[in-house]
């Protein structure tokens, strides 16, 4: 059997849920082979052009086109989706005809890798998953031990493993200490989620200030100070007077929701968007909704969300942990505080669409429905680079980026 892309098996540090993940193939309710225009790397494109395999050669020649503007070796061509269905043309009877007729090594880097993200950092290989995959979301969000870290063997294409370098004037070891502190903070027992996020925001703001004034030399004292404040209870005491501001929460995230016009391309996506629209009091996904109505519906839904979350008690915390681990928090933004703002904006908008679905005359959404909402949200919102940029711009223009306003929306 010919092999196009070689793979290696490597020991890696992974969250427990990654070690349990397996693609469910044709049983997937929201396949990654539909709705996305999949990119093809140059090596794979050339192999597609040269193949004489009668089962796929005509399909590949017809449906894979070069990216002429701003292309690269990694982003060299793309599959053109079928009109109407928005399916990849290689999807035949719910199976990939490239994999079936040529073998897995002929998948493009994008198709082989998704939903995995692999890197080398601080002397370890690591792998995380994006929750836009339904099975990845189910494994990550429903299990108490999903973010216990273990060593597992992963299979990778070596050129798809990123090598994370130092950033913000910090050594990789110092970055790792900070990253571990942030993850451990979010897993600290005895604190509510909003308290952990509030302390995380204070830390990221202080870290940004410290790096600007002192560089890496001030990091050890900063970490020690926060560890001490958490252990002696001072960090929680400082938050005692913080009150929820549902009006602020509703207005900020209702305006962000309206930046995104989406109805979904699969049955699963359409069901989620219809449930969200109904929760806001709309009959259709594309119906205009007044900000005041969205705020009112958010306020009623957020009061019911804790009851709904009893069916999936780890869902929101595990969502945040996955975002942090996958994106190497707090080092994916321009500053640690910028990374924090991106994290809480994702969290806040997700919380809003979950709350909207609690406005129902029937039963509250169950665990499966909430997992499906997270998955569709990640797929339709977080994979949209333009939307992410608009969110960050809207937050800063509204003045919401100030930490005292962040505090006002964290507590529900």
Folded structure, characterized:
50% of the residues lie in helices and 10% in strands. It has 412 residues and is mostly helical. The protein has a three-stranded antiparallel beta sheet with strand order 2-4-3. The model has no long low-confidence stretch (mean pLDDT 91).
Q: Can you give keywords for this protein?
A:
single chain; mainly alpha; 2 domains; 10 strands; Lysine-N-methylase
Task: Supply Rg.
Answer: 22 Å
Number of strands: 10
Which of globular, elongated, flat, extended, rod-shaped describes the shape? globular
Compute the average pLDDT: 91
Question: What are the low-pLDDT stretches, counting only 5+ consecutive residues below 50?
Answer: none
Q: Share of helix among residues?
A: 40-55%
Distance between the termini: 58 Å
Organism: Noviherbaspirillum suwonense
Protein name: Lysine-N-methylase
Task: Write a compact overview of the structure shown.
The protein is mostly helical and 412 residues long. Helices cover 50% and strands 10% of the residues. A three-stranded antiparallel sheet has the order 2-4-3. Strands 8-7-10 form a three-stranded mixed sheet, covered by helices on one side. Strands 1-9 form a two-stranded antiparallel sheet.
List the topology elements.
Blueprint: E1 8-15, H1 16-20, E2 39-40, H2 42-50, H3 57-63, E3 64-66, E4 77-79, E5 91-92, E6 95-96, H4 97-101, H5 109-113, E7 116-121, E8 124-129, H6 134-141, E9 149-156, E10 162-163, H7 172-186, H8 193-213, H9 219-231, H10 234-237, H11 246-257, H12 267-279, H13 291-309, H14 315-326, H15 336-356, H16 367-382, H17 385-397, H18 403-410
Parallel strand pairs: 7-10
Antiparallel strand pairs: 1-9, 2-4, 3-4, 5-6, 7-8
Helix pairs in contact: 6-16, 7-14, 8-15, 8-18, 11-13, 11-15, 12-15, 13-15, 15-16
């Amino acid at each position: 059997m010919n092999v196009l892309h070689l793979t290696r098996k490597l020991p890696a540090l992974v969250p427990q849920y990654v070690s349990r993940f397996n693609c469910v193939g044709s049983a997937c309710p929201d396949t990654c082979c539909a709705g996305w225009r999949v990119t093809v790397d140059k090596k794979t494109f050339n192999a597609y052009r040269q193949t004489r395999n009668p089962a796929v050669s005509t399909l590949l020649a017809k449906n894979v086109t070069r990216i002429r503007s701003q292309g690269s070796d990694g982003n060299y061509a793309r599959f053109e989706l079928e009109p109407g269905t928005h399916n990849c043309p290689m999807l035949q009877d719910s199976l990939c005809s490239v994999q079936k007729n040529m073998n897995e090594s002929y998948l493009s880097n994008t198709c082989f890798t998704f939903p995995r993200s692999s890197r080398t950092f601080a002397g370890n290989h690591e792998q995380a998953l994006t929750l836009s995959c339904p099975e990845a979301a189910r494994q990550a969000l429903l299990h108490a031990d999903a973010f216990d870290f273990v060593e597992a063997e992963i299979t990778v294409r070596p050129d798809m493993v990123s090598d994370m370098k130092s950033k913000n004037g910090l050594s990789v070891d110092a970055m790792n200490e900070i990253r571990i502190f942030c993850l451990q903070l979010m897993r600290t027992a005895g604190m509510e989620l909003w308290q952990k996020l509030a302390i995380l925001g204070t830390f990221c703001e202080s870290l940004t200030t410290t790096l600007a004034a002192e560089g890496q030399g001030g990091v050890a004292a900063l970490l020690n100070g926060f560890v001490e404040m958490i252990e002696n209870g001072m960090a929680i005491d400082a938050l005692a007077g913080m009150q929820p501001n549902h009006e602020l929460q509703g207005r900020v995230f209702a305006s962000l929701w309206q930046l995104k016009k989406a109805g979904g391309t699969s049955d699963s996506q359409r069901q989620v968007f219809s449930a969200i629209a109904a929760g806001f009091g709309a009959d259709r996904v594309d119906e205009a909704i007044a900000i005041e109505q969205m705020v009112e519906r958010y306020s009623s839904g957020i009061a019911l969300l804790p009851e709904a979350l009893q069916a999936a008690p780890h869902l929101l915390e595990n969502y945040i942990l996955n975002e942090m681990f996958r994106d190497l928090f707090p080092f994916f933004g321009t500053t640690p505080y910028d990374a924090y703002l991106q994290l809480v904006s994702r969290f806040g908008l997700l919380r809003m669409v979950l709350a909207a679905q609690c406005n129902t005359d029937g039963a509250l959404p169950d665990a499966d429905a909430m997992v499906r909402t997270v998955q569709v949200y990640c797929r339709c919102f977080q994979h949209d680079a333009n939307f992410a940029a608009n969110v960050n711009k809207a937050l800063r223009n509204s003045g919401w980026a100030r930490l005292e306003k962040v505090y006002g929306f964290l507590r529900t």
